[in-house]
Amino acid sequence: MQLRYKAKIRRAQATFTKTTERLSDSEKAAVIAGMSAVALPSGWHLRIPARCPACKSPASVSGRDKSGDYGAIWSFPRHFGCRFCGLALTGQELDLAGIEAQMRNEEPELDPDWEPDFDRM
Fold first, then answer.
1. Dihedral of CA 41/46/49/50: which sign?
2. Which of 10, 11, 12, 43 has its Cβ near the most Cβ atoms within 10 Å?
3. What residues have CB less than 8 Å from 24, skipping those under 6 apart?
């Protein structure tokens, strides 16, 4: 799996280089800004912005969300896609890229030593 993942990254980097080699830095930035404004089609309703592990351009992770304990909402990635280099990742490839489930509504951590003041109640 790791060899397949590395091959996909190399192929995507080569595609990005070939596609953008004749563009100046300002032209490349303009193209990336324009293309990143349009979301990639996906069968998953949840989309989260991400950075491509191959070309470092803006990309998106799609997947599903689920409620957890104490009102936490978690996102579970199922697909990664980059418009610029064509990289697409699923399954264990997401883990290899460091794209993992994350809590979407993080609350500040409560003081573990806090106790209610019953004298004021």
1. negative
2. 12
3. none
Outline where DSSP puts E strands in the chain: 46-51, 58-67, 73-81, 88-90, 102-103
Kindly give, in sequence order, each residue whose CB lies less than 8 Å from that of residue 15, ignoring residues fewer than 6 positions away. Answer: 85, 86
**pTM score:** 0.74
What distance in Å separates the CA atoms of residue 43 and residue 103, rounded to the nearest whole number? 21
Q: What is the pLDDT of residues 54-102, one digit of tens each?
A: 999 999 899 988 887 767 788 889 999 998 999 999 999 999 999 988 8
Q: Are strands 88-90 and 102-103 parallel, antiparallel or unpaired?
A: unpaired
